[in-house]
Amino acid sequence: MSIQRTVLVIGANGGIGRETCTALRRHGWRVRALVRTPPQTVGDGIDWQAGDAMNAEDVVRAARGVDVIVHAVNPPGYRGWERLVLPMLDNTMAAAKANRARIVLPGTIYNYGPDAFPVLSETSPQHPCSRKGEIRTEMEHRLRSASTDGVRSLVLRCGDFFGPNAGNNWFAQGLIQAGKPVHRIQYPGRYELGHAWAYLPDVGETLAQLLDRESELADIDSFHFGGHWLDGHAMLASIRRVTHEPAVRAGAFPWWLARLASPFNETMRELCKMRYLWREPVRLDDRKLRAFLGDDLYTPLDDAVRAALIGVGCLPKATDIKALPQSA
């Protein structure tokens, strides 16, 4: 009889945290979630605990007895990112050390600069060209340093998130207008350039599969999640197919407007800093991940895009379609 293992997900109200909770529950884990505001409804099998990732006592209390801590917390809307991100990770590392737990960090491509493009492997040099990238690199440096205190870690590096519950993301806040039928997309780069997209339910499932085999991982390990690598034409074609609207127009993201708003809006300011990632193709090499878990990792593109559009209210849910009156 196998012993049920326990995971703490910090930031479980976010897109990746939520999907990771769901996937780990599906894989038989006992899931504990630390969030500022637990959901009102219960019965999902998750042990929801109220607390703040910036409060070391809250994190240590929530992590008591866990085997793994998924550090999926980020300040909403990038607010206070430079001030908050590293202290939150330090609190997680302290809790992991106290419990001899492995830390899982959803990674990004911000760590890399143009010298590593266009294909990124787990061993590519990390020379970030933005402050956000420097902080991300420092996060991973701290995790490696913590290994001397027995803290094991796993980084799963992904491209831009999208999905039915993605939170802040380019798909729902840049390409389309949430809550409305799609008549035009606003692509942030040149349509002929490839871009890495990570469908969040696939990310959660991949993390669950990796943690099912946690004993086979290195003490400091990392994998690149390839996801969907496609150009703007392919993304537009998928949106047209799933909306059954071949007339959806190809537009451009208004960077000029983002620049005007950036002095007054922190989210717009951070988006402008990341524009370089849309100026050339950047692809994640997932050969190591596929060698470890197999090739059946990613939801077909149209199914993923459909779920994402339903999630942000651009398409009706299947139940809504059934409820519509039938024509005579």
Describe this structure in words.
- It is a single chain.
- The protein is an alpha/beta fold.
- It is built from twelve helices and 14 strands.
- It has helices at about 15-25, 55-60, 80-100, 130-145, 170-175, 200-210, 230-245, 255-260, 265-275, 285-295, 300-310, 320-325, and strands at about 5-10, 30-35, 45-50, 70, 100-105, 120, 155, 160, 185, 195-200, 220-225, 230, 250, 285.
- A seven-stranded parallel β-sheet has the order 3-2-1-4-5-7-11, sandwiched between helices. A three-stranded mixed β-sheet has the order 8-10-12. A two-stranded parallel sheet has the order 6-14.
Label this structure with key terms.
about 325 residues; 7-stranded parallel β-sheet; single chain; 3-stranded mixed β-sheet; about 40% helix; disordered C terminus; alpha/beta; 12 helices; 14 strands
The proportion of strand residues reads 15-25%
What would you call the shape?
Answer: globular
Helical content (DSSP H or I, runs of 4+): 25-40%
Overall strand count: 14
Order of helices and strands: EHEEHEHEEHEEHEEHEEHEHHEHHH
Can I get a quick summary?
With 328 residues, the chain is α/β, with parallel strands linked by helices. Strands 3-2-1-4-5-7-11 form a 7-stranded parallel β-sheet, with helices on both faces. Strands 8-10-12 form a 3-stranded mixed β-sheet.
Blueprint (SSEs and pairs):
Layout: E1 6-10, H1 15-26, E2 30-35, E3 47-50, H2 56-62, E4 68-71, H3 81-99, E5 102-107, E6 119-120, H4 131-146, E7 153-157, E8 160-162, H5 170-175, E9 184-187, E10 194-199, H6 200-212, E11 220-224, E12 228-231, H7 232-243, E13 249-252, H8 255-261, H9 266-273, E14 283-284, H10 287-293, H11 301-311, H12 318-323
